[in-house]
């Protein structure tokens, strides 16, 4: 499937900035609130990248999932914020998303890069220096490193690793853009960035607060991130 053209041309030198405050979101994370409203509030607060991760108990399937992806992508387009699809390359191509995020249990990075072409962003989860190097060789634009802290948002998360792997990868000279993920709160965001991440990827600290607090919550994250850069 070739699908719709990607909407935004993302320059490689912009990737670090896009990772600063990365919202990962699906309807199961929104605790009954409208995911579109949560995403719009998060965009108003200043999130820099959004990943559609429709996964876990009660996740939408089929056309309802497709329709939600389109609505969230439209909201991101209106703000000029890139929209990434988790795991599902077919969906990303069908809606003309700006990229895909995959893990070690998904299709290989090389295969996904071949399918999405050079214009779309490719994010890959890595848990060791070897996985990080292989992902970069196969065309990853950025790495997702986690779980940094305990998380309730991913049932099959690997053991918590703290900020150790981020620092190790940087000390090995791996300079690719990286984002920390897993249990990250505004209070912890500075430590993640100081360890070497270009930004933080967050589910519950944004989607799990009352909708009226999402915007100020995101602004609070951005303050801590900027202080740590
Ligand atoms: C930014 C970011 N980093 C890591 C992940 C996790 O990806 P994966 O290991 O494939 O797990 P699932 O999210 O698919 O359950 C991510 N989604 N985003
Ligand atoms: C989607 C995801 N991936 C992880 C990894 O370790 O790769 S942790 C995680 C869940 C992040 O959600 P929260 O911010 O609520 O902890
Ligand atoms: Mg995955």
Automatic annotation (TrEMBL):
One of its GO terms (cellular component) is cytoplasm. GO terms for biological process: thiamine biosynthetic process; thiamine diphosphate biosynthetic process. Binds 1 Mg(2+) ion per subunit. It holds the Pfam family TMP-TENI. Pathway: Cofactor biosynthesis; thiamine diphosphate biosynthesis; thiamine phosphate from 4-amino-2-methyl-5-diphosphomethylpyrimidine and 4-methyl-5-(2-phosphoethyl)-thiazole: step 1/1. InterPro entries: Aldolase_TIM, ThiamineP_synth_sf, ThiamineP_synth_TenI, TMP_synthase. Keywords: Magnesium, Metal-binding, Thiamine biosynthesis, Transferase. 4-amino-2-methyl-5-(diphosphooxymethyl)pyrimidine binds at residues 51-55, 86, 125, 154. Mg(2+) binds at residues 87, 106. Residues 21-206 form the Thiamine phosphate synthase/TenI domain. It comes from the Bacteria. Its EC number is 2.5.1.3. GO terms for molecular function: magnesium ion binding; thiamine-phosphate diphosphorylase activity. Its cofactor is Mg(2+). 2-[(2R,5Z)-2-carboxy-4-methylthiazol-5(2H)-ylidene]ethyl phosphate binds at residues 151-153, 183, 203-204. Belongs to the thiamine-phosphate synthase family. Condenses 4-methyl-5-(beta-hydroxyethyl)thiazole monophosphate (THZ-P) and 2-methyl-4-amino-5-hydroxymethyl pyrimidine pyrophosphate (HMP-PP) to form thiamine monophosphate (TMP). This is Thiamine-phosphate synthase. The lineage of its organism: Bacteria, Bacillati, Bacillota, Bacilli, Bacillales. The gene is thiE.
């Amino acid at each position: 499937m070739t699908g719709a053209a990607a909407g935004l041309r993302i320059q490689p030198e912009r990737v670090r900035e896009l990772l600063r405050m990365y919202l990962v979101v699906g309807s199961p994370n929104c605790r009954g609130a409208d995911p579109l409203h949560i995403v719009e509030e998060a965009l108003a607060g200043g999130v820099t990248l959004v990943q559609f991760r429709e996964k876990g108990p009660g996740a939408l399937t089929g056309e309802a999932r497709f329709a939600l992806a389109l609505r969230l992508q439209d909201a991101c387009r209106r703000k000029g914020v890139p929209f990434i699809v988790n795991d599902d390359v077919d969906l990303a191509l069908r809606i003309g998303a700006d990229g895909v995020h995959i893990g070690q249990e998904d299709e290989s990075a090389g295969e996904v890069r071949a399918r999405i072409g050079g214009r779309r962003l490719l994010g890959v989860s890595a848990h060791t220096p070897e996985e990080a190097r292989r992902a970069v060789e196969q065309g990853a634009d950025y790495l997702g490193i986690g779980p940094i802290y305990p998380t309730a948002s991913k049932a099959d998360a690997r053991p918590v690793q703290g900020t150790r792997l981020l620092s190790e990868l940087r000390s090995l000279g791996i300079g690719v853009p990286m984002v920390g993920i897993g249990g990250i709160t505004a209070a912890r965001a500075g430590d993640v960035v100081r360890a070497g991440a270009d930004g933080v990827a967050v589910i519950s600290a944004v989607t799990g607060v009352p909708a009226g607090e999402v915007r100020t919550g995101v602004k609070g994250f951005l303050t801590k991130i900027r202080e740590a850069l």
